[in-house]
Structures are given as structure tokens and as C-alpha cells.
Design a protein that fits this description.
single chain; 202 residues; alpha+beta; 5 helices; 9 strands
């Protein structure tokens, strides 16, 4: 491989506080979620990307909101919130022929970085949530695929800091993300105990 990169958008203490405030709500309650996002100052994606900061960016991923730090957030009323904060990818003239992530407002990229740097960004975010929530309920590693999922069961939601193949497009190889999913959503996909462990390791 050539042209390896790791990009990140910092997960600050302020962002952790906003995410934990969202985690107190039922993520299926659209009105409550929208009100909390407005309080946090997270503009809608369509409004944010029309601004001058995005005029010269080569590619802007689809989302529903953008944080003030620059994270692209998907929260569309299905009982979940998805916020990537780091990407591991290669620029090789194929599917990705330029460093689109490093050009996005709030993001930085490091050429020549790979797994150790990506894992270090992930570990920093896990530590920030551990300091606020205590030890996680699950810390699951899948060495075969170099993935890790760390989760906390909260009153209304499950909070996961995860890493793995990026699901929103085929441009990036992997992402690291914060994922909130409602425990009150119908057919919630994160059960207790060993069932959850089995789910996250498949």
C-alpha cells in the first residue's frame, strides 16, 4: 500500500459532555433530540456545508448534523446517533485519489500514519468516556480484523466507542466512531451479556 493516512477530528471534553447529555434522552424522541442538538450548537448538515469553510473541500460526507468541532453526525430519528472521529485510509489513485479528510474543517491528517496512530486516537476517546462513566460493560477486541468495541449500558441508551469498516461509503478503509443506540427502540440490536459479546465479535 502507498499513501497511508490517519485523519482525526478531536473528541473534546465539551463534546463528551454533549454526547452524554444526548445519552440521557430517548433517541426515538425526535423533538427532544432536535432541541438538545440546537442547545449544543450543532447545525444541520445542509446548513453547515453551505458555509464558506466548505467551499474548497474536495468531498463532504453525507450526514444530518455537524458539530462545531467538524464531526459529521448521523441522527435521523431511528433511535441512534453515529459520530466518526478518526479514519484510517490510503490515497492510491483508485477509489480515493486525494486526501479529502485532511481538507475538512476541524480535521487533521497525518501521512505515513497507520494502525498505531489510529488505535491511539481510539484509546484517547475510550479514556475520556471511562473517566466520566467508569469502566465499560464490554471491551471486546477482534484481533483477526483489528477491531475493538467498548460499550457502556446507560439508562436509556447504549454508548459504544467502536472501530471497523466504515459503513457510510466505500472511500475509507476503517473509521473510529461514537455510536449511541436507544435501549427503548423496537428490536434494539444490543442485548445483555454474552449475546452482546457474540454480536460484536461477528
Amino acid at each position: 500500500m502507498s499513501g497511508e493516512y490517519v485523519a482525526q477530528c478531536l473528541v473534546t471534553e465539551e463534546l463528551v459532555s454533549h454526547l452524554l447529555a444526548l445519552a440521557e434522552l430517548d433517541l426515538t424522541d425526535d423533538d427532544a433530540i432536535e432541541a438538545r442538538l440546537r442547545e449544543a450548537g450543532w447545525p444541520e448538515w445542509s446548513q453547515a456545508v453551505r458555509g464558506p469553510a466548505y467551499e474548497d473541500t474536495p468531498d463532504v460526507p453525507d450526514a444530518t448534523h455537524v458539530t462545531p468541532q467538524g464531526h459529521f453526525v448521523t441522527c435521523d430519528g431511528d433511535g441512534s446517533l453515529y459520530l466518526p472521529f478518526a479514519y484510517l485510509y490510503s490515497v492510491d489513485g483508485g477509489l480515493l485519489d486525494e486526501d479529502c479528510w485532511g481538507a475538512l474543517p476541524g480535521w487533521t491528517s497525518e501521512e505515513g500514519a497507520w494502525r498505531p496512530e489510529f488505535d491511539a486516537h481510539f484509546g484517547t476517546v475510550v479514556q475520556r468516556f471511562t473517566e466520566r462513566l467508569g469502566l465499560p460493560n464490554h471491551d471486546i477486541r477482534q484481533p483477526r480484523y483489528d477491531t475493538r468495541y467498548v460499550s457502556w449500558r446507560l439508562e436509556h441508551n447504549v454508548l459504544i466507542v467502536g472501530q471497523g469498516p466504515e459503513p457510510l461509503s466505500y472511500h475509507q478503509f476503517e473509521d473510529a466512531h461514537v455510536y449511541l443506540v436507544s435501549r427503548t427502540a423496537k428490536e434494539v440490536p444490543f442485548p445483555d451479556g454474552e449475546e452482546m459479546r457474540a454480536l460484536l465479535t461477528t
